[in-house]
Amino acid sequence: MVRPSDVRIVEKLTGEQDEELIAVLLDDAESFVLAYTMRTKIIQPLEKPVRDLAVIALNRMGTEGENSRSEGGETYNFNDAPKQIFDTLNRYRICRVGGKVYENKKK
């Protein structure tokens, strides 16, 4: 679930004013993080990687399918998400044991 505070943070970081677009990108990023970590909900340490992935997606809009670009003597390379994001995601990834995922759930 996209939190309004996350929308505001992404607005501040990027200058983008389209709240609906930001909410869609945050929702997509959250879905990716949940699938990658095999969790059922976003825990506090994963909130920043969700925002970071949304910012990356916003910044890459219009360059889908490109590996690199050269303009005005400058070259840009488009890689996957930065390593530090995956380092954080890996830290909170739940492993699968015997085909099942075990996640601590607060009662």
TrEMBL record:
UniProt cross-references to InterPro entries, sorted A to Z: Phage_gp6-like_head-tail (IPR021146), Viral_HT_Connector_Assembly (IPR053746)
Domain of life: Bacteria
Pfam families assigned: Phage_connect_1
The protein's name: Phage gp6-like head-tail connector protein
